[in-house]
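Standup, Tuesday
Yesterday: got the pipeline producing structure tokens again.
Today: sanity-check two examples.
Blockers: none.

Example 1:
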Amino acid sequence: MSIDFRGPNPMERRLYHGTDFTNIPAICENGFNRNFRGKNGVRYGQGVYFARDAKYSACYVNASDRTKPPIMFEVNVLVGQYCKGSEGLSHPPLLPKHATNSYHSTVDNELNPSIFVAYHDAQTYPAYLIHFG
């Protein structure tokens, strides 16, 4: 499957991703890897989850060890065309009236999305580490 994000208006958003402190070096070095998906749920699909609101992602920062410093990622995500996700999706569904082209990502709410799920590693770029406390 080939996904082209170079259209006239690719939808890129700056989103947030909270994770355990131990995952930070690997994400910084290699980016996000969808093979590690599902640790904190797959309600909207089996991809990597990003939130519009930093406050939401902060809940997932060091969830298993609160003694580590609180750090989260600000991420550039190519969300492209999206649809409402559901549990069990291993990839986004096909676009209406398309035999081969699929949506690029899934969301919690199509009209006002606050959670985005990316299914292709090339959709994401960890731009910043945010230290807070």
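Example 2:
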Amino acid sequence: ATVRGGAAAIAGVKVGDRLLSVDGEPTRVPADAARLIPGQAGSKALVCFERKSKTAGTSLQYSLVLERQPMKVEPILAQELSSLELLGNQFKSAWPNTKFAYVRIITFNGPDILSTLKQA
């Protein structure tokens, strides 16, 4: 998975792309990526991916040179819904004058998740 706003996401890596190698070292399990990707901020990494195409049985391999950066994952993404139209008319009558929000919990990071949720 890519980190929202991270170098890979910005470069166009998509959910479902499979990491094949980092700096020529093959990645077979997620722990390989966790071991190979981190490095000094600003250093470069050659990463190779595979993306399955819409045509059955075919895939595309591609490589990117990404700049390593400190990783900060926001545990919660929250957004107030601007219109009840998004939820359907049945909610207007059931909960008039009520605000709704979309909340996505990206990672559970222990007790900090509750304070982060309250701030969202």
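Quick observation on example 2: The chain is about 20% helix and 30% strand. The first helix runs from residue 7 to 11.
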